[in-house]
Amino acid sequence: MEDKHDHAYMHAHGIAHEHGHDHGHVHENQKAVINRLARAIGHLEKVKRMVEEGEDCSDVLIQLAAVRSALDNTGKVILQDHMRHCVVDAVSVGDTEAIENLCQAINKFIK
Q1: Are 90 and 4 in contact (CB under 8 A)?
Q2: The pLDDT value given to residue 3
Q3: What is the pLDDT of residue 100?
Q4: Residue 24 confidence (pLDDT)
Q5: Which residue, 38, 40, 39, 32, is CA-closest to 81?
Q6: Per-residue DSSP letters for 36-55?
Q7: CA quadruple 85, 96, 21, 104: dihedral, nearest 10
Q8: Which residues of the chain have pLDDT under 50?
Q9: Distance of alpha carbon 98 from alpha carbon 95, whole angstroms
Q10: Which of 98, 108, 103 is nearest to 25 (CA)?
């Protein structure tokens, strides 16, 4: 029977295993993230329509800024949840790989 300590050990030592994480990546803000993504998708669809309809470039750029802002704010919520749940859980069982993975994710997100 595998407990979360065994899971962390396997991660730390690169041992292949199923990813049956206890938390299932469902966090307190999951609904908020889904709603934010839906809004960002709506903004992006509007940008596409604006371009198709030949609307003013300045207006398109403003709408694109709204999309970028929506995505950045969604990323912040995901990052906070990840730190509060996944990383805290991993560190509590000695899985230092979670910190390295977080650093890599932050580097890609903030480019």
Answers
A1: no
A2: 45
A3: 87
A4: 56
A5: 32
A6: HHHHHHHHHHHHHHHHHTT-
A7: 80
A8: 1-5, 7, 10-23
A9: 6
A10: 98
The Cβ of residue 91 has, within 10 Å, a number of other Cβ atoms equal to 13
Considering Cα of 25, then 31, then 32, then 35, what sign does the dihedral take? positive
State both tokens at 11: 């991660």
Locate 2 and state its tokens.
Answer: 């595998």
Which residues have C-beta within 8 Å of that of residue 73, sequence separation ≥ 6? 36
pLDDT for the residue 25? 59
CB contact at 8 A, 62 and 47: no
Taking a C-beta distance cutoff of 8 angstroms, is the pair 90, 7 a contact? Answer: no
Which stretches within 1-111 are classed as H helix? 4-12, 30-52, 57-81, 88-92, 97-110
What one-letter code names the amino acid at 76?
A: K
The token pair that represents 59 in the structure block:
């207006």
| Lookup: tokens for 14 | 């690169």
